Amino acid sequence: MEYTIETSAEALEATSALFMTCGAGGVEVVDPEVLERDGIGPYGEIYDLSPADYPRAGIWIKGYFPVTDEDSKVEEQLRAGMKRIGASGLDVGTARLVVARVSEDEWADAWKKYYRTFQVSDRITVRPLWEEYQPVSADEIIISLDPGMSFGTGSHPTTAMCLRLLEKYLQSDENVIDVGCGSGILSIAAAKLGATHVLALDLDDVAVHHTKNNVIENDVDAQVEVRQGDLLTGVSEQAHLVISNILAEVIVYLAPDIPEALLPGGTWIASGIIADKETIVVTAMKGAGLTVLETIRQGDWVAIAAKKMIRYEE
User: pTM here?
Assistant: First the structure.
């Protein structure tokens, strides 16, 4: 069930908290302010927004709840909560509540109308499977993608920075391990950039499913092996390059295992790092005996390339 409350920006936090108190796992905020933007995101993604999808005044706050026999109870709680918020002195606007039953499949796919073909770098372009696109140059690398419910559209700073570092550090005929492959976008890019073999790993069976489909769609299934796995547990092979676009805390946990997964002189590209976690990640990398080669930043996000140095005894 979708519950929509029309209110004011002043009551945004209070109304969002009300939804959470009633059991929503999160809220969606529909604010007409975004219509005033230029329609191009900071990483080249294109937004085609319609005024009809936004309130004429105020904002909409939406919460989603499973269909149960308690639907009327949720509605009563929301209405009573908005009365309390208004009584506290906040401007709640109309406080109009609209309840609708929505299809889970339709909800899960609604984002697709905002996901368009875009260029990540001078060579790499990401194309949603449902869009037609003609390459503009002979050496352009096209990644055709349907991320589904898994992470990795290419437009997020963490993924975009990984792709740029991958393009810089991967050499032809090298092996790659992608830890936490999500949609498979980085594994596919590695294969198309010339990797001989790519091992794509993810604990989430949804991510594994979408990665397998995307690998086939991009005709790189001969190069990319997809497995379900918990980080590097059970992985015995070594690679020239390891990619991990995951949370900073997981990167820190993973760091001691990276030298075993890398060949001498190999590179680790780590992303998914919020800026204030950069120090702990760098410390973990150095603690694992790796040398930081490069750090790049995009907004509040950081990606780091580190190297396993070649020792004389190796």
Answer: 0.68
